[in-house]
């Protein structure tokens, strides 16, 4: 079957020459540069015959023709693209004519290198399996322990746990209840459950095919992929997840026994249940477009209230209120991170919100949610539900604007969005949470060290 | 001075890209754009296991050719010759994680950004599981000034180990 005319037209310009390759009489391939023209109407490539017997292909030979391009740069090169075709060589007048019947091409502008490297993961596995068969023992890819631990646990995302835990501690400390040891244990317990969640999420994404279907993972999205890459066995991951969960639950039970069993027990049950139901069947909340709500609840009210109760041994409206802005922002971290994954998620039946909604609706909802967040912070600070210095959290508004602009500009380009928006969105949650915490600290400090605390510091 | 004609050594040292042709299972030539590396003695290429079909082809049939044809693809002055090296390739992969690293300095010389990527190899771990391809040259074809309208000078290297 002939290569399509449109395919041939793409090499009419943009390449300086072709390289013709054929098998010589001694069995070695011969490759030689030559000029070419495309006759797309006839589906033929016409080549200038290279001079010299050694590089003259026999008529009727199956030949390979490649055109390739790079642009040298100081740091290497870019604009990589190539097209190669195969066909039978004929002579036509003074030229060599090839009517290509097969082709293969790559252009990094159309398929970015990182995406190309994901598409070919099965090729890597096949090769290592074959190598293992040659050697009579399995050959597996490797990563140093430190990198592997970081990649497997996705520990940098622990900021999602840090923020609500310290916020709960701050709300309690503002009321005079404060223990560093209990705060540390709360963070440790929450972090262990979070790591268990991260790993179980990868287990279920591997099992559901979501990891394999996603060819555009980024630093912030697409999971750890350690099972998909063959770096860690699925069984090891499942075991590791269970260990983290059990350790986290153990610390939670200790805190419950020490600080008030039933309230903390039910908070812990809710947190663990939501984290498991996030990707685990039968609920698989993230597959139903409920992932954001699950994440908002888990890393918002549940963690803030849990942390607050450990310190203060009661619940208050203020603690609930303080949890809502960070709950929305952490849900938005997931929401934005789902944008580059939406093609793969859709293929795997993971119907997240960005899969279900149009670009305009996704961005509109983001803007609305961010506006609600800042509205709640401002209203809380003005009315005194939150300490007034928490108004400083509005200082992160420029970050939200940057993310919104990035979404508008780079929505369709996962790698551009990774650099322009996804990292900034993570910072938006972290810095807003830290500024809310700082607002509480300012209020606590003023109360402690000023004889008469001005209203704007209360 | 190495075992190759001097113009070929110069081209191999400076070229940023080559067309590396292997023979597929049916004997059909298949060409891959690759960075040629030369340390004065050996000609090397390297391939991630992500793009490993060529490695399987070499193992089945080691006869290969390496053409350097893009005269402008250098970090400095354009190349003055086009060169094709025909020879036998061997895949060296005692440990795909580490064996290839001995050519890392040569690679970084041609593609300095690789140093940065290598430091962040956690981002793309399978890309850094690689095999080294060493070519034992048998014949070198050289086209002065890059013109293939004139026959190449042919250098048989039967004595090269």
Structural write-up:
The complex is a heterodimer of chains A (458) and B (161). Chain A has 458 residues and is an alpha+beta fold. Chain A contains 16 helices and eight strands. Chain A folds into two domains: 5-110, Pnp Oxidase, Chain A (Roll), CATH 2.30.110.10; 154-457, Farnesyl Diphosphate Synthase. Chain A is 56% helix and 13% strand. In chain A, strands 1, 2, 3, 4, 5, 6, 7 and 8 form an eight-stranded antiparallel β-sheet that branches. The relative contact order of chain A is 0.09. The model of chain A has no long low-confidence stretch (mean pLDDT 95). With 161 residues, chain B is of the alpha+beta class. Chain B has a single domain, classed as Electron Transport, Fmn-binding Protein, Chain A (Pnp Oxidase, Chain A, Roll), CATH 2.30.110.10. In chain B, strands 1, 2, 3, 4, 5, 6, 7 and 8 form an eight-stranded antiparallel β-sheet that branches. The model of chain B has no long low-confidence stretch (mean pLDDT 95).
Topology (SSEs and partners):
The complex is a heterodimer of chains A (458) and B (161).
Chain A: H1 5-9, E1 18-23, E2 29-34, E3 36-39, E4 44-47, E5 62-73, E6 76-92, E7 95-98, E8 102-107, H2 113-119, H3 121-135, H4 145-153, H5 159-174, H6 180-208, H7 210-213, H8 234-259, H9 261-279, H10 291-312, H11 317-337, H12 342-347, H13 353-356, H14 359-383, H15 397-410, H16 414-449
Antiparallel strand pairs in A: 1-2, 1-5, 3-4, 4-7, 5-6, 6-7, 6-8
Helix pairs in contact in A: 5-6, 5-10, 5-11, 5-16, 6-8, 6-9, 6-10, 8-9, 9-10, 10-11, 11-14, 11-16, 14-15, 15-16
Chain B: H1 6-14, E1 18-23, E2 29-34, E3 37-38, E4 43-48, H2 53-60, E5 63-68, E6 81-92, H3 104-110, H4 113-119, E7 130-144, E8 153-156
Antiparallel strand pairs in B: 1-2, 1-5, 3-4, 4-7, 5-6, 6-7, 7-8
């Amino acid at each position: 079957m002939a290569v399509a005319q449109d395919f041939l037209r793409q090499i009419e310009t943009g390449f300086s020459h072709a390289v013709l390759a054929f098998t010589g009489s001694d069995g070695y391939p011969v490759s030689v540069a030559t000029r070419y023209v495309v006759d797309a109407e006839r589906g033929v490539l016409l080549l200038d015959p290279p001079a010299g017997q050694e590089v003259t292909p026999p008529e009727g030979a199956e030949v390979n023709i490649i055109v390739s391009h790079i642009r040298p740069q100081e740091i290497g090169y870019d604009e990589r693209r190539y097209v190669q075709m195969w066909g039978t060589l004929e002579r036509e007048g003074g030229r060599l004519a090839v009517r290509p019947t097969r082709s293969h091409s790559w252009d990094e502008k159309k398929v970015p290198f990182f995406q190309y490297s994901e598409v070919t993961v099965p090729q890597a596995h096949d090769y290592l399996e074959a190598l293992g068969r040659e050697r009579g023992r399995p050959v597996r890819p490797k990563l140093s322990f430190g990198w592997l631990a970081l990649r497997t646990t996705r520990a940098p995302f622990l900021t999602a746990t840090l923020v609500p835990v310290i916020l709960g501690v701050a709300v309690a400390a503002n009321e005079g209840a404060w223990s560093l040891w209990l705060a540390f244990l709360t963070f440790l317990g929450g972090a262990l459950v979070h790591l268990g969640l991260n790993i179980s999420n990868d287990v279920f994404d591997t099992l559901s095919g979501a990891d394999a279907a996603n060819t555009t993972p980024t630093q912030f999205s697409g999971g750890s992929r350690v099972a998909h890459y063959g770096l860690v066995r699925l069984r090891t991951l499942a075991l590791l997840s269970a260990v983290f969960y059990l350790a986290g639950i153990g610390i939670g039970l200790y805190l419950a026994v020490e600080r008030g069993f039933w309230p903390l027990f039910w908070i812990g049950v809710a947190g663990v249940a939501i984290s498991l139901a996030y990707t685990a069947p039968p609920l698989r909340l993230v597959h139903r477009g409920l992932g954001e709500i699950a994440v908002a609840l888990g890393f918002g009210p549940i963690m803030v209230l849990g942390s607050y109760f450990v310190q203060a041994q009661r619940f208050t409206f203020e603690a609930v209120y303080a949890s809502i802005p960070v709950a929305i922002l952490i849900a938005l971290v997931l929401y934005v991170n789902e944008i580059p994954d939406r093609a793969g998620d859709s293929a795997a039946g993971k119907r997240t919100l960005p899969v279900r909604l149009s670009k305009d609706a996704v961005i509109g909802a983001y803007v609305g949610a961010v506006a609600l967040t800042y509205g709640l912070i401002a209203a809380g600070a003005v009315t005194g539900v939150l300490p007034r210095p928490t108004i400083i959290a509005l200082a992160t508004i420029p970050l939200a604007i940057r993310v919104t602009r990035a979404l508008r500009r780079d929505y369709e380009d996962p790698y551009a969005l990774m650099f322009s928006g996804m990292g900034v969105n993570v910072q938006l949650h972290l810095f807003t949470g830290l500024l809310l915490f700082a607002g509480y600290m300012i209020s606590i400090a003023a109360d402690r060290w000023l004889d008469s605390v001005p209203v704007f510091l209360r | 001075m190495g075992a190759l004609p001097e113009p070929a050594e110069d081209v191999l040292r400076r070229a940023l890209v080559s067309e590396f042709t292997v023979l597929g299972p049916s004997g059909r030539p298949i060409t891959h754009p690759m960075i040629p590396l030369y340390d004065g003695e050996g000609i090397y290429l390297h391939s991630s296991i992500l793009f490993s079909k060529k490695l399987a082809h070499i193992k089945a049939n080691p006869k290969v050719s390496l053409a350097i044809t893009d005269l402008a693809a250098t970090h400095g002055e354009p190349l003055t010759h086009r060169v094709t090296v025909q020879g036998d390739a061997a895949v060296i992969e005692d440990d795909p994680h580490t064996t290839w690293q001995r050519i890392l300095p040569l690679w970084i010389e041609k593609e300095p950004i690789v140093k940065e990527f290598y430091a962040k190899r956690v981002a793309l771990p399978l890309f850094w599981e690689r095999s080294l391809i060493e070519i034992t040259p048998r014949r070198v074809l050289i086209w002065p000034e890059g013109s293939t309208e004139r026959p190449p000078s042919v250098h048989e290297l039967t004595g090269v180990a």
